[in-house]
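hey can u run this one w/ zinc ion bound, need the structure tokens asap thx
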Amino acid sequence: MPVEILTVPCRSDNYAFLIHNSETDETALVDAPEAAPIITALEGKGWSLNTILITHHHDDHIDGVAALKSKYGCVIVGAATDAHRLPPLDMEVAEGDPLSVAGHSVEVIDVSGHTVGHIAFYIPDANAVFTADSLMALGCGRLFEGDAPMMWKSLSKLAALPKETVVCSGHEYTAANARFALTVDPANEALQKRAAAITEARAAGNPTVPSFLSDELATNPFLRPADPAIRSNLGMEGASDTEVFAEIRSRKDRF
Ligand code: ZN
Ligand code: FE
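ok here u go:
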């Protein structure tokens, strides 16, 4: 079934995503950092808005929900466990619940860590996963509520998706993430190349999101705690993947 994904830059460094089915003329939105640029994008395409999928409760992902709801009367979908701190939900979901949006089946994945209750949406028809502040381009979200074992479990689920999956994440943090990644994995040639491409893209004012899961697997240190070179750099050859992940995350917090 035909599916088009449109990236909508919002606020200073957020991304929202529109998912459009041209056969049914239905459109879904993942996250609403603010309403105005999303309305502009919808009107530019001549689309209405049927559904909003919310990943987590932070303001920079939900501030536009109320205005979009009143303009379009769209269905608001979010995590049942976070219903108390999300805008009013029309549909509450949990991992594994069957969900169909804009004519496409959507898999809900619990990716707690940044917050407890953060969910991701995987759309096999679109080869895309919407990860917000869980897996990010060359990074992962800061652990505000969960801990490292929780985030590692969440990232492991995303890492197991098909390698050709497009990762639609929530922020343009990639240049800073690249600078940090090079401190733990400096000899990784794929990372060096990607970091150079990111510098070039940002200098030209181009987004670095979305990204391919295959590139994240090859270059994102938060998906690579099993990598021997990273382990040796950290002096953690005998540690568990979770322990190495925790060390990488805490180094990034101090970076
Ligand atoms: Zn957040
Ligand atoms: Fe965010």
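The pocket of fe (iii) ion (ligand 2) is lined by residues 58, 60-61, 133, 170-171 (CB under 6 Å). anyway lmk if its weird
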